[in-house]
Every structure is written in structure tokens, then in C-alpha cells.
Specification:
Rossmann fold; Glutathione S-transferase Yfyf (Class Pi), Chain A, domain 2; 2 domains; six-stranded antiparallel beta sheet; six-stranded mixed beta sheet; 10 helices; ATP-binding; RecF_2; SOS response
């Protein structure tokens, strides 16, 4: 999978950008604050319907711009092409399109796959559980077709139960149908998540073996979000009085988490900040490899400010792996990273929101 063309309007400092991308490595170089990261952000938006950068949605829209829009021409490895777009004007809601037709956001995310490693990626290892759930569910969504329907069922039931909790009703008859629905959908989601992690683990082992060999073997553990050995419906019933006080549901797959452990670093606290970054990178590369194994093509890989995040040896290892895989890479830096100087690439200069091809 690759972007042949990327058009951006009104995204942060990018007023109007239209670039043709190469099938391999594309490098966006320029001074800090020029808009390089926003190029990767545009690609990520098409795949996730959110930014990888923190802050409110409103910050994405360029000050004074009437609308925000990102469009791309996609080319598949099997020769298929499609046009995808995401935008909004005067509303916080996204409008998604595929080949000119309005579609649900889920359809757009299913059409376009992008993974990104950036300065905040260490939060996948050291941050809140929400980051790890997002990573896990994006991967499951792309390899398990049953996931989205079960996730929608779960979210609908969760919304209804939370509304009942805030209404302070005590009627068991009102709670029980929604708690049964939550339990059934949660069981399906949990099974899909655990199966995904089992498929991911050997690929992650290969990735960490190349980037962090000193840490030994790697293992993954899923934490489902309610007590072990208990059916979720029963746990929800027992937890109901406490949930009424809090006003929201505290057990379920929306509270799940997963963890990673190494033979020589069994706890997250044993990792240095640099090792956290490399572990997060290994997770993203493993997820991309699993996508490629299942779908027959690599997702687009974005690497933001690679030279400042990794030393040259690790930069070289990542570039070599992605070049060998034939993945399209979008990469940023204030200068061309040294390991790329001997590698075929397309170079763009970014300054004051303008993007110009150099090579």
C-alpha cells in the first residue's frame, strides 16, 4: 500500500500542499516548525481519524482557514487504486470519502493503513492504558472482520448502562439486558484481542531481537479489565453500587490493558527511556509486519524526527528492514539522516508550510 499523491488544506501551518510521493522512502527535511510533522500527521489522520499529537481537534485547523481537508490517491500492491479523503468545515465531526462517495469513518480507516513512530511513541510502553488499547484495537480491526460489529455492540451497551448509572435507577430489570449485552460483546472482543496478541508475539520477538537483543526474550500479557474467573455480567452486577457513585462503568474491555516483559527486564520500570522508545518502535514494526502477513502488503510507515530519536546504528537497522520489505516510508528530519544517504529516496524541502521536491 502506498500514497501516490497527498493533498492537504488548512492543516496547522500547511495552507495548501499537493505532493507526488515515491513508492519507497520519502524524506521531508527542513527547519523546526516548518510543517514536516504535519505531513505525517495528514497521512495518519486518513488511517486513524485522529492525530498522533496531543491537543484538541480544533488545534488541527489552521488559524483563519475555512476548512481542513486531506486527500490521497492510494495504490495497492495488487494494482487496485482508490481516492480517500477526510475533512471538516465548521463542525467537529469528520466527513470521510472513498472515491468521491461519503462513507463511515470505519470504512475509511479500513481502506487506509498507516503506522507512525514519533517522539511521543514511548507512551505506548510508559503511558496510560488507553494508548495500548488504541494500538491493539487498530491492529485487531485490520485483521479481524468481526471486531468492528462487536465493538459497536459493546459501545452501545456501555453508553446505555452509564446513562442508567447516572439516572440512579435501582431497577435490576433495566440493567440486566445491557449488562448481558456488554458481557457477550466483551467475550468476543477479548477473544479477538488475545488471538491478535498471540499472532503478534513471534513477530515482536523478531523485531525486539534486532533492536534490543540485550533484553532477551519478550512476552506479552493481556489484562482483560475485570476480575479473573468471573463472568463480566456477574462482576457488573456486584460492582453496580460503586459504579452508581462514580457515574460510569468501571469493569469491562474498555478498561483492559496489555503489558510487555523481557527476560532481563521483567518490569516496565526496568527500561530506560531509550529502551522504551526502541520497544515502542519494535511494537509498531511488528504490527506492520502482521498487517503485511495478513493483507499481503505493508502499511505506510511514518517516522518522525528519526535522527533525534535513534542513534545511527538503530536508524540503519530500521531503514534496512523497511527497504527490504518494500514499504513506503514517510520520514522527517532537520537534515537528511546519514543512513539514508546511500539509499534511494525522494527528498522534499519543507519551510513555512511550503513543500517542494528536491530529488
Amino acid at each position: 500500500m502506498r500514497f501516490e499523491r497527498l493533498r492537504i488544506q488548512g492543516l496547522r501551518c500547511l495552507s495548501r500542499v499537493d505532493v507526488e510521493l515515491g513508492p519507497g522512502i520519502n524524506v521531508f527535511e527542513g527547519p523546526n516548525g516548518a510543517g514536516k510533522t504535519s505531513m505525517l500527521e495528514a497521512a495518519f489522520l486518513l488511517s486513524h481519524a485522529r492525530s498522533f499529537r496531543s491537543g484538541a481537534k480544533e488545534a488541527l485547523l489552521q488559524r483563519g482557514a475555512p476548512e481542513l481537508a486531506v486527500f490521497a490517491e492510494l495504490k495497492r500492491d495488487d494494482g487496485r487504486s482508490s481516492r480517500v479523503g477526510l475533512g471538516r468545515a465548521g463542525s467537529p465531526r469528520w466527513d470521510a470519502k472513498i472515491d468521491g462517495e461519503k462513507v463511515a469513518l470505519g470504512a475509511l480507516v479500513g481502506e487506509c493503513a498507516v503506522v507512525c513512530f514519533e517522539p511521543g511513541s514511548h507512551a505506548l510502553i510508559a503511558g496510560a492504558a488507553e494508548e495500548r488499547r488504541r494500538y491493539l484495537d487498530w491492529g485487531v480491526f485490520h485483521v479481524e472482520h468481526a471486531f468492528l460489529d462487536n465493538w459497536r455492540r459493546y459501545q452501545r451497551a456501555l453508553k446505555q448502562r452509564n446513562a442508567l448509572l447516572r439516572s440512579a435507577t435501582l431497577s435490576d430489570e433495566l440493567y440486566q439486558p445491557w449488562e448481558a449485552e456488554l458481557s457477550q460483546a466483551a467475550q468476543a472482543i477479548e477473544a479477538l484481542r488475545q488471538d491478535y496478541l498471540q499472532q503478534l508475539e513471534p513477530l515482536l520477538s523478531a523485531s525486539t531481537g534486532g533492536l534490543l537483543p540485550e533484553l532477551g526474550e519478550v512476552g506479552l500479557r493481556y489484562k482483560r479489565g475485570w476480575p479473573d474467573g468471573v463472568d463480566l455480567a456477574d462482576a457488573l452486577q456486584d460492582q453496580r453500587p460503586r459504579d452508581r457513585i462514580r457515574g460510569h462503568t468501571t469493569f469491562g474491555v474498555h478498561r483492559a490493558d496489555w503489558s510487555i516483559a523481557f527476560t532481563h527486564a521483567p518490569l516496565r520500570e526496568h527500561l530506560s527511556r531509550g529502551q522504551e522508545k526502541l520497544t515502542a518502535l519494535a511494537c509498531l514494526l511488528a504490527q506492520a509486519a502482521l498487517f503485511a502477513r495478513d493483507r499481503g502488503e505493508w502499511p505506510v510507515v511514518c517516522l518522525d524526527d528519526l535522527a533525534s530519536e535513534l542513534d545511527q546504528a538503530h536508524q540503519q537497522a530500521v531503514v534496512t528492514e523497511l527497504e527490504a520489505a518494500g514499504a513506503q516510508v514517510l520520514l522527517t528530519g532537520t537534515d537528511l539522516p546519514t543512513p539514508l544517504k546511500a539509499v534511494p529516496h525522494r527528498l522534499f524541502h519543507v519551510e513555512q508550510g511550503n513543500v517542494a521536491p528536491l530529488l
